[in-house]
Design brief:
This protein is mainly beta. The chain has 2 domains: 23-53 and 150-212, Immunoglobulins (Immunoglobulin-like, Sandwich); 56-147, Immunoglobulin-like (Sandwich), CATH 2.60.40. Helices cover 6% and strands 45% of the residues. The protein contains 1 helix and 16 strands. Strands 5-11-10-7-8 form a 5-stranded mixed beta sheet, with no helix packed on it. Strands 12-2-14-15 form a 4-stranded antiparallel beta sheet, with no helix packed on it. The radius of gyration is 21 Å and the shape is globular. The mean pLDDT is 90. Bound molecules: copper (II) ion (CU). Copper (II) ion (CU) is lined by residues 97, 133, 135-136, 139.
Length: 212
């Protein structure tokens, strides 16, 4: 008895696929600092390869699409979501919150809701959404709606690493809530197997920066 040709082809494919990694994958490490030299946590880094990066519909990041209200604060302070995402807004406090955005790409209001309750909002335009709470003026948070599969947020050392990029030309876009300019800054980068880049942002004076 001979094996069916389709089965043989499938077995061959299964044997080959684990080796079929792109030969040209690049890892980019971006360090973001303020013009005062201090490392910036919570900066958004988005990379757009020159050759394009395909449709956003199936894009998933490695973190949950959740903007919680916890300890009278938004958690996380900055959340990056892929364009078209639906974000959950769970209330994990004992008090009620009333979340709103006046930002151009998405104006909305989630009227007073309490503990263990949750609302969702879908973000269908790229850009930056500033969040507030009608009850607690100190609550400030941001959602960055990104139109690239390649995005990351800087850690406490001001570093973000993005893996699996195609080598070659790309644009690196960086944004931080305390930037003087409202729009993100974009710079060209040439991606090799491993590339490190430092981006310095002009910051507002310390007294005008967000507390969170
Ligand atoms: Cu609140």
């Amino acid at each position: 008895m001979r094996p069916a040709p389709n089965r043989a082809a499938a077995l061959l494919l299964a044997a080959v696929l684990p080796l079929a990694r792109p030969a040209t994958a690049a890892d980019l490490s971006v360090t973001v600092r303020g013009d005062d030299g201090v490392a910036l946590a919570d900066a958004v880094v988005v990379v757009r390869p020159a050759g394009g990066s395909g449709p956003m519909a199936a894009v998933r990041y490695s973190w949950p699409l959740t903007m919680a209200q916890q300890n009278i604060a938004f958690n996380p302070y900055v959340l990056i979501v892929p364009l078209g995402s639906t974000v959950a807004f769970p209330n994990r406090d004992k008090v009620r919150h009333h979340v709103y955005s006046f930002s151009a790409i998405k104006k909305f209001e989630l009227k007073l809701y309490g503990q263990q309750d949750e609302r969702t909002v879908t973000f269908d335009k790229p850009g930056i959404v500033a969040l507030g709470c009608n009850i607690h003026d100190s609550m400030i948070g941001f959602i960055y709606v990104a139109d690239s599969p390649f995005a990351a947020k800087t850690n406490a050392a001001g570093e973000a690493v993005i893996h699996g990029l195609p080598t070659g030309g790309a644009q690196v876009t960086v944004w931080h809530p305390d930037m003087k300019a409202k729009a993100p800054v974009s710079q060209p980068v040439s991606l090799a197997a491993t590339t490190a880049k430092i981006v310095v942002l002009d910051l507002r004076p310390p007294a005008a920066r967000h507390k969170h």
